[in-house]
Each structure stands twice: as structure tokens, then as C-alpha cells.
Design a protein that fits this description.
Shape: globular
Organism: Actinomycetospora endophytica
Structural class: alpha/beta
Protein name: L-seryl-tRNA(Sec) selenium transferase
CATH architecture of the largest domain: 3-Layer(aba) Sandwich
Oligomer: single chain
Distance between the termini: 35 Å
Family: Belongs to the SelA family.
Pathway: Aminoacyl-tRNA biosynthesis; selenocysteinyl-tRNA(Sec) biosynthesis; selenocysteinyl-tRNA(Sec) from L-seryl-tRNA(Sec) (bacterial route): step 1/1
Catalytic activity: L-seryl-tRNA(Sec) + selenophosphate + H(+) = L-selenocysteinyl-tRNA(Sec) + phosphate
Length: 434
């Protein structure tokens, strides 16, 4: 810009309407809104006035910023999870299946969520999702859905034990992510906690001696994000039945039936068969569906919970109901497919990508995550890059979250949907120049 006056530069800056009319920018206006795009145009024009940007590059700068912000009007961006943690809480836990995503999109418009089209009268809210859940766990006499796993537990504690006692083992008074503590949650319902046993050992007699006229329920909480080993003992569900109060089992991870890949992970079907009166779980973990709190158990108890005033405040919306039903009725969701993918298939995918990109294929270890299956290591395969690549991948046009271990960045394929391999390859090329 040597020899060009400030006034000349300003006259060369394209008008706002001109930039907004450019095809890539106009397309973005239709998706993310005129006001947001106009703000980007004005910001680029200001950069040009300050000499930070050539006037003829204003439109390209706006297009680049739109690409960085993502394809929708929301700030959430699609991310490729190559961390090796299948249910990564910071990445939204279970990715929805294509069937669940399409169901949620279809439900985003006007739907018959609470209307019987045949009669024109009010219908049972979320009947399809509830019927699908009941079919998936036939041992449950009744089912209900709240808006997350904690909500399911709050509803159970409020309906059964507000102003009364909850008997719980000391070793099951757990803290999970972000400082969230189960004891604090339970006390917030107005219940009182009656702790039994010690940190590492509890016996049936401890529960029996604690149960009395003021007991609202016995609660078993699966310590899903840690393992206590050594001199330990716990009381199985089938030994807690017959003490005269409801037994509620919080399995946490959302596994509805036994899974050979996770033999030590509790599931809803086995807990009910062992005598649990009520089971609570999360829908966005091993079930592989949307965030939801599942309640399964005695028809009388579930009806009691469903009619409690708090149930209205904790109910799920139509998008969750649609995605949950599609998860239960549709094909195997991504999280389950990732869990069950054989190591040989992962190694083959990894070597193909390594050959294509000129990178090194390595063996590594993945984890379930999301507070499920603590201590379980899943054999996996990935691509090794320099440590600095981890940050570069996160801030790329198509963000990739890898992990750093043993002095290298590892792109773990077990947590990457095979349908995203082309996206992953493009992101890696942008960082490595391969």
C-alpha cells in the first residue's frame, strides 16, 4: 500500500451490501442470519481501514471467518473425537446414530408428540419412546424418562424419601465430574442420608440394622468412575430385597442388558431380575442415545413417580423422545459399534490412513469414558504425530480432538466413526501438509 492515501484505500473497501450479495456470503445469510454475517462484514471492513487487510480481501476474510465459526447459527461445532474415549463428556458423550439424528430433525417441526391423530384428542406424551424402552427391557413393569440421569435419581429420591431416610453404603457416596456429588444431590430432595458400612466394606446386616419406620428407600449407586480393590465387600442387589423398603439401583451407564465386552458393568435387566424395585440410568452413555434419565421398574413405583409434580419439571422434550426411540428401535448406535469393533478392523483402517498420509500407525489403548466401565482398557490403533499437532488439530477448520501421551500426539481410531475417516484425513493433511 506504499504511495496510496488513506482516503484511496477506504474508497476501495467494498460496501456492506456488496459483500453480503456475494454468493458464499449470501448463502451463509440464509443459514446463520443476516445480523451475524453483517457483523463479520463490518469487522473485516474495519480491519481494512486499519491497514490490517487489503480491501480486495474483505470478502475472502468474511468467508474464512464463517468457515471457522461453523455451518450453523449456533456456536457448537462438529468435532471429530479421536481421543480414544468413546463417551467423552466434554464432547457430548454418545454421538447419535444417523437414525436418531434424522428422527430429531423430523421432530423439530410440528409433531404429534402429545396428540392422538386418530381421535384428535390428547395422547400419551412420548408413547413411542416409552414403548420402545419397555420393549428393550421386558423385565420392567413400568418405564419413565426424565431429562438426565441425575434427574431420574432426584425424582426417585423425592417421590420415595423426601423427609425420610435413604440408606446408602459409605463407599457409594461418590463424586463425579465437575465436583458433582451424589450425596449433595440426594440431600437437596429433602431426604436424610443414613450411611452404612465403611469406605471399603459393607454387609447385609448393616443395611438390615439401618432400615426402620423412617426409611424411604435403600439406594445402591454404581461407583462408575473408579474402582476400589483389595479388602472390599459389597452387598448384591438380591440380598437387599426383603428388607421391607424399595430398593433403588443407580447403574449410571445406561447398559440395558448384559454385554460380553463389559462383564463387570451393571445393567438394567440383571438388576431388575435380582429384585431391584427401580433402576435409574443415563441414556447418553452405553445406550448410545441422547441425554436422558431412564427409570425402569415396578409398575406401581413408576406410576407414582410419573404422577409426582416434579416429573413435569424434569420431563424431556420432543427432540429427545424422537432420538431415544430411534436409538432403541434403529441400528446399533455409534458408541456401541465403537465398543464392539474388533482390533484387527481398527488396525486395518489405521494402516490405510497411515499409508495415505505418510504417517506412523501405532497400537494404543482406548477407554469407555462417561463414567462407565472404569479400569476397562480397549485395545486400539491410531496415528502418531508430533505433540504440537494436538493443538493444531483442535483449532483447524474441522476440529479434531486427539490426545497426548508418551511424548506424542495420538489420533485414536476407536472413537472415530468410520464414516468420518475422509474428514479426518483432510484435517490431518491440513496440519501435516501430507
Amino acid at each position: 500500500m506504499t504511495g496510496v492515501s488513506t482516503d484511496d484505500v477506504r474508497r476501495r473497501i467494498p460496501r456492506t451490501d456488496t459483500v453480503l450479495a456475494e454468493p458464499p456470503v449470501a448463502d451463509a445469510v440464509a443459514v446463520v442470519g443476516r445480523a451475524r454475517v453483517k457483523d463479520l462484514v463490518v469487522a473485516a471492513q474495519d480491519r481494512a481501514r486499519r491497514g490490517e487487510l487489503a480491501p480486495e480481501d474483505v470478502t475472502d476474510a468474511v468467508v474464512a471467518e464463517l468457515a471457522r465459526l461453523g455451518p450453523t447459527a449456533a456456536s457448537l461445532r462438529p468435532v471429530i473425537n479421536a481421543s480414544g474415549v468413546l463417551l467423552h463428556t466434554n464432547l457430548g458423550r454418545a454421538p447419535l446414530s444417523r437414525a436418531a439424528r434424522e428422527a430429531a430433525v423430523a421432530a423439530a417441526g410440528t409433531t404429534d408428540v402429545e396428540l392422538d391423530l386418530a381421535t384428535g384428542e390428547r395422547g400419551r406424551r412420548g408413547a413411542g419412546a416409552l414403548d420402545a424402552l419397555a420393549a428393550a427391557v421386558p423385565d420392567a413393569g413400568g418405564v419413565h424418562v426424565a431429562n438426565n440421569g441425575a434427574a431420574a435419581l432426584v425424582l426417585a429420591a423425592t417421590a420415595l424419601a423426601a423427609g425420610r431416610e435413604i440408606v446408602i453404603a459409605r463407599g457409594e457416596m461418590v463424586e463425579i465430574g465437575d465436583g458433582f456429588r451424589v450425596p449433595d444431590l440426594l440431600v437437596s430432595t429433602g431426604a436424610r442420608l443414613r450411611e452404612v458400612g465403611t469406605t471399603n466394606r459393607v454387609h447385609r446386616r448393616d443395611y438390615a440394622e439401618a432400615v426402620g419406620p423412617d426409611t424411604g428407600m435403600i439406594l445402591k449407586v454404581h461407583p462408575s468412575n473408579f474402582v476400589v480393590s483389595g479388602f472390599t465387600s459389597a452387598v448384591p442387589t438380591d440380598e437387599l430385597t426383603g428388607l421391607g423398603v424399595p430398593v433403588v439401583v443407580d447403574i449410571g451407564s445406561g447398559l440395558l442388558a448384559p454385554d460380553p465386552a463389559l462383564p463387570d458393568e451393571p445393567d438394567a435387566t440383571s438388576s431388575l431380575r435380582a429384585g431391584a424395585d427401580l433402576v435409574t440410568a443415563s441414556g447418553d452413555k452405553l445406550l448410545g442415545g441422547p441425554q436422558a434419565g431412564l427409570l425402569l421398574g415396578s409398575a406401581e413405583l413408576v406410576h407414582r413417580l410419573r404422577r409426582h409434580p416434579l416429573a413435569r419439571a424434569l420431563r424431556v422434550d420432543k427432540l429427545t423422545l424422537a432420538a431415544l426411540e430411534a436409538t432403541l428401535r434403529g441400528p446399533e448406535p455409534p458408541a456401541r459399534a465403537m465398543l464392539h469393533t474388533p482390533y484387527a478392523a481398527l488396525r486395518e483402517r489405521t494402516e490405510a490412513l497411515a499409508a495415505e498420509l505418510g504417517l506412523e500407525a501405532v497400537d494404543c489403548t482406548a477407554a469407555v469414558g462417561g463414567g462407565g466401565a472404569p479400569g476397562v482398557e480397549l485395545p486400539s490403533a491410531g496415528l502418531a504425530l508430533p505433540v504440537a499437532a494436538a493443538a493444531a488439530l483442535r483449532v483447524g477448520a474441522d476440529p479434531v480432538v486427539a490426545r497426548v501421551e508418551h511424548g506424542r500426539c495420538v489420533v485414536d481410531l476407536r472413537s472415530v466413526d468410520p464414516d468420518d475417516d475422509a474428514r479426518l484425513a483432510a484435517a490431518l493433511r491440513a496440519v501435516t501438509g501430507s
